[in-house]
Amino acid sequence: MAVTNYGDYDAWQRHALITVDDGTTAVNMQAITETIDIDMGERDYDKLDLLNLGQIAKHGPVGITTVTFEGYNLQAGTDGAGTATSFWDFFADKPDMDSADPLTNVVTNTVTRYRVAILWTNDGAATAGTSDVTEGATYAGKRFMIADCTCTSCKDSFTDGVLKSTLVFKGTTFDKSAAGNVKWESVALATATKLDAPSAFEAGTTKW
Amino acid sequence: MEKVTNKGEGTGGFKDDDGKSQTLKSGESVECNYKRSMDERFVIEKIEKKTIKKIKQEAK
């Protein structure tokens, strides 16, 4: 891995870009996020025991994919596209519920479908999880995306004396047509190719 | 249809709204369907559709 100020020599570390998009507004969450946890749905796996002591693998469907962020934010929402200033409005309604201070975001029953994109790259010009990785032997990147997922939880705790928010997105791993909703993509240094910015997300229509 | 320009320093790319991969050198532009940029380096300009009336007016 190239020498960068992020320390990405042999592993992606310390630095990531996160973009959450509802098809209308895209916001970047890296400035308020400390941890990312991606839990791919597991495939059910069981066995059938035969009377000759043999076994048959019994395959089941793949589970739900969960993406969890832990972060620290000062505000009750985000007032428009660009830099996210809170986790709350993803859960309450959409990325930018209120457009001006004071932000007043009352929870709704709206279930918004999001695309979450997370990019690890040494391309310093990349500013979003959906950024392109520039062509050239000095740039590399790896991106995770889940389309048509839902924010299922936003929990805040002050038990350690600091207000920490935990945000959870869940999505089915496949859509109803059995097309995948989860994608990883990358470019290596050696290939010197670019990694395209994805298409604009449109819930239920364009995943990436 | 939009005009998309790569304002970044190197060769980059994006997938347009038709799912086609577009490659642009720094400063290059392309006309394609791309309503919302997913990377601020790719700047979108609306291409104005000219009516026959407007073309005739400009010709005068």
- In terms of structural class, how would the helical and strand content of chain B be classed? mainly beta
- Overall number of structural domains of chain B: 1
Give me the count of strands of chain B.
5
The shape of chain A is globular
Quaternary state of this entry equals: heterodimer
| CATH architecture grouping of chain A | Roll
Span between termini of chain A: 27 Å
Number of strands of chain A: 11
Tell me about this structure.
The complex is a heterodimer of chains A (208) and B (60). Chain A has 1 helix and 11 strands; from the N terminus they run βββββββαββββ. Chain A has 208 residues and is an all-beta fold. In chain A, strands 1, 2, 3, 6, 7, 8, 9, 10 and 11 form a 9-stranded mixed β-sheet that branches. A two-stranded antiparallel sheet of chain A has the order 4-5. Chain A is globular, with a radius of gyration of 19 Å. Chain B has 60 residues and is mainly beta. Chain B has one domain. In chain B, the strands form 2 sheets. In chain B, strands 4-1-5 form a 3-stranded antiparallel β-sheet, with no helix packed on it. Chain B has a two-stranded antiparallel ribbon with strand order 2-3. In chain B, a hairpin with a 5-residue loop joins β2 and β3. The model of chain B has no long low-confidence stretch (mean pLDDT 90). The interface between A and B is medium-sized, with 23 and 23 residues.
Q: Strands, helices and their partners?
A:
The complex is a heterodimer of chains A (208) and B (60).
Chain A (H helix, E strand, L loop, with lengths): L16 E5 L4 E3 L4 E7 L3 E7 L5 E8 L1 E8 L10 E2 L4 H5 L21 E8 L19 E17 L6 E9 L9 E6 L21
Parallel strand pairs in A: 2-7
Antiparallel strand pairs in A: 1-2, 1-8, 3-6, 4-5, 6-10, 8-9, 9-10, 9-11
Chain B lengths: L1 E5 L5 E4 L5 E4 L4 E4 L9 E5 L5 H8 L1
Antiparallel strand pairs in B: 1-4, 1-5, 2-3
